[in-house]
Amino acid sequence: RNDLGEARNIIIRGLAPQLNSVTINGERIPSAEGDNRNVQMDLIAADMIQTIEVSKALTPDMDADAIGGSVNLVTRATPAGQRIVVTGGALYNSLSQAVTPNGSFTYGNRFAKDKIGIVASASSKDHVFGSDNAEFEWNFDDAANPYIFNYEVRQYDVRRLRQNLSANLDFRLAPGHTIFVQSMYSNRKDWENRFRMRFKDVERQEDGTYVGELRMQTKGGSNDVNNARLENQTMYNLALRGEHLFGKLRTDWSVSRSFANELRPDERYIQFRKKNAEVVFADMDPTTPYMLPASVGLALSDYGLHELTQQQQNTYDQDNNARLDFTLPVGKGNLKFGARYRAKVKFRDVTFNEYEFVDGDQEPSFDDLSIKYEAARADRYMAGDYWNFAAGKSFISKDYLGGLDFDNSALFDSTSVPAEFAATNYDATENIVGAYAMYSGTSGKLEYTMGVRVENTSNVYNGFAFDLDEETSDDTTGTGNYTNVLPSVLLKYNLSSRSLIRGSVTSTLARPNYYDLVPYISFSRDDLEAEFGNPKLQAATATNVDLSYENYLPNVGLISAGVFYKRINNFIYTESINDFEYKGTTYDAQTPKNGEVATVQGLELAFQRTLGKSGFAKNLNLYTNATFTASQTTGVRDENIALAGTAPIMLNASLAYDAKKFTARVSFNHAQGYVDEYGGDAYSDRFYGDQSFVDINAVLITPIPINKPPRRSENIALAGTAPIMLNASLAYDAKKFTARVSFNHAQGYVDEYGGDAYSDRFYGDQSFVDINAYYALTPKLRVFIDLN
User: Fold this and answer.
1) Spatial distance between the Cα atoms of 428 and 95, rounded to a whole number of angstroms
2) Do the strands 6-7 and 249-283 form a parallel or antiparallel pair, or are they unpaired?
3) Beta partners for 121?
4) pLDDT value for 756
């Protein structure tokens, strides 16, 4: 999945991000999201990562919360010697027509006779871009003649700055004993302005005309955040771990702390509107419909100030982790066992205020050209010709909105609006204790791993019950505690040196989204509508069956085919209920629930090959894979609804030319559309449409001359080589008396080269004289003397 065209959340085997996990060096990354457990992958720069490990069949020593799969990001390890890498470049975006810089730096080396290693990296990427989109919601009360009741056209202007730092050290204490310190800091700042034209609550009249409300909104921020909505996300991870070998017993341990935080300060909106305006559909094409005012709403003077608001938001997530693993050779394999502990603290704090001018005469006028902004891309809007009338592309400028002094009570009256935030605030603690045991061994051509993992999850969530009519709230608390026993068996049979079969039956889980577990209640007795959290939700658990065949081709290639089946119990979805009872009143309500059973079946195909052995073709590499997935659920409306978030088809292809100094690649990625979220009926389901991406990149490596000190001589002696070695010995040997005088000499030599002759390290001349003798007093008693 992407955000404004940039990749963000992972999909594995077509399954939604909340069913997958992301770790750094084996530890789960906390999420700065307030609602879900998703980790935004674009927060971490590729320059910080050395290896990406994808696991689709989990072994018992891995955290179990990954039904689709797990992605482990391995940070850079210290190199064998000094390594310095500097990159720099510029990025051009055709939509924003902006050029921005990016670059990275990496330094690594070993010291103290290779006992200490360090690698440090830093990167920065600045991107100014945007997004054009149009969104429509349809009314299907008359299925034969549907119409749009909510019509939105949006222009986003975004600056996204990513900055990353990492530093890793290792200390070789002794053979078989190494300590590691690993750290990473990632920060992403999004400054966003959004300009939205909206036709809201459009209704069909008896005479066949349509009437709705026209709204023109500017989204921004205060002067302190560049007059834009700032989303400031930070992720930090610090880990201390060790690897030790005590005889045959290998011991691995780690302790770590990580946190994620999202700050959204001074998020502001100003909106003008015109009520009861007649609208007409210029085009009712289902994919690209067009709407505009019939008459009222065409002029700027038709609009009046509707709302002026500011919001503050802070979301925080901290994990403290500890784990201990032991590996012991047993028979023809290894017995591995261990335990882990994770303690999580999370909260979300939001405030929302409305503002009114103390002096009504100070209110801005929508036709005041001095504070106006015209949608800059109206003449080249990528989504279509939606800015089709003058007022529809006119907005209050972000600079005017950002310059308003809301802290000045002489200018503004401020009113808190708890209906906008009371039910969204919460704090939570979550503790996970896990233990496992597994045995990995071989029997002829068969390699196998079998074991069991046990995880206990306990949590406490505190939220609020908010009465929308009375604007009152009460504290609520919900607790949960459950234990999962997760057995697994993984097999690999080597048919030959180039082909094998893999098979596995594994057990995994997916914990509920954070906000779903909050015991929040938001209800209105007047409207008889309500939303509820569910602290009693259980984790979804899956039994996964995998079978695959792999054939490694002689000329660097791979052909593989596999099938998989997943039976997911207690899958989680949002249910719309027409008769939900709360405190004696029946509501139309929405609440997250555990479903009964979902099944997922899939087919995976992959082909990878170097296309030739010589000439141009030997540098051409082709990589393709495809995943075909089908899913069914029970307990949601009927028996055959697809599991939400599951893409039926995933396609990836890449053609690369890889030579010594030049690399080029063309990549294609496609995901077929799928149900993203269930509604109360099929018409209310929310869908992700088809997505296709083409990526083209090329690298030309040009050697940069570096001034090196000239070689001092072609005849420098080999370090560590003594030019002269002398040895002599004179001995007297009788029956009862023996004496010996020995002499040894080594001439001085170069022990280690320096940058020049003055910096070479030398061993000086060495001479030794040794005198020893003994006398036998009796056959069993001797006297010795030895002088050096």
Assistant:
1) 42
2) unpaired
3) 106, 166
4) 55
Q: Is the pTM of this model over 0.85?
A: no
Closest CA to 500 of 547, 550, 545, 562: 550
Helix, strand, coil percentages, rounded to 5, for the chain? 5, 65, 30
- Positions of the chain with pLDDT under 50: 708-709, 711
In 3-state terms, what secondary structure has residue 49? strand
Q: How many CB atoms neighbour CB 219 within 10 A?
A: 21
Tokens 């045959």: give the residue.
248
Structure tokens at 751: 């022990």
Q: CB-based contacts of 277: which residues, under 8 Å, 6+ apart? A: 211, 212, 213, 214, 293, 294, 296, 297, 302
Of 148, 121, 118, 125, nearest to 136 by C-alpha is 148
The string of DSSP codes covering 173-212 is EETTEEEEEEEEEEEEEEEEEEEEEEEEEEEE-TTS-EEE
Measured between alpha carbons, how far is 750 from 716 in angstroms, rounded to an integer?
9
H/E stretch holding 26 reads none
Task: Spell out the residues 6+ positions from residue 148 whose beta carbon is closer than 8 angstroms to its own.
Answer: 136, 137, 138, 139, 199, 202, 281, 289, 291
Domain parsing of the chain, residue ranges: 1-416, 725-787
pLDDT per position as a tens digit, 100-115: 989 999 999 999 988 9
Beta-carbon contacts of 223 under 8 Å, excluding residues fewer than 6 positions away, are 402, 403
The pLDDT assigned to 639 comes to 60
Amino acid in position 320? N
Cα gap 315→426, rounded to integer Å: 10
* SS3 letters across 529-555: EEEECCCCCCCEEEEEEEEEEEEEECC
Three-state DSSP state, 16: coil
> Of the candidates 531, 530, 521, which has an alpha carbon nearest to the alpha carbon of residue 587?
530
Which structure tokens are listed for 310?
């500011």
What is the C-alpha to C-alpha distance for residues 118 and 183, in angstroms, rounded to an integer? 12
DSSP-derived secondary structure for 384-401 = -S---SGGGGEEE-HHHH
Is residue 29 within 8 A of residue 22, CB to CB? The reply is: yes
Hey, is 17 helix, strand or coil?
A: helix
Torsion sign over Cα 219, 691, 20, 463: positive
Cα(483)–Cα(476) distance, rounded to whole angstroms?
Answer: 24
**Cα torsion angle, 385, 388, 390, 393, sign:** negative
Beta-strand (E) ranges in 2-113?
A: 2-3, 6-7, 20-24, 27-28, 49-55, 69-75, 83-93, 98-111
Mind listing the pLDDT tens digit for each residue in 565-621? 999 999 888 888 888 888 888 899 989 999 889 999 999 999 999 888 787 888 899
- CB-based burial label for 334 (10 Å; 0-12, 13-18, 19+): middle
Of residues 194, 262, 188, the one with CA closest to residue 227: 194
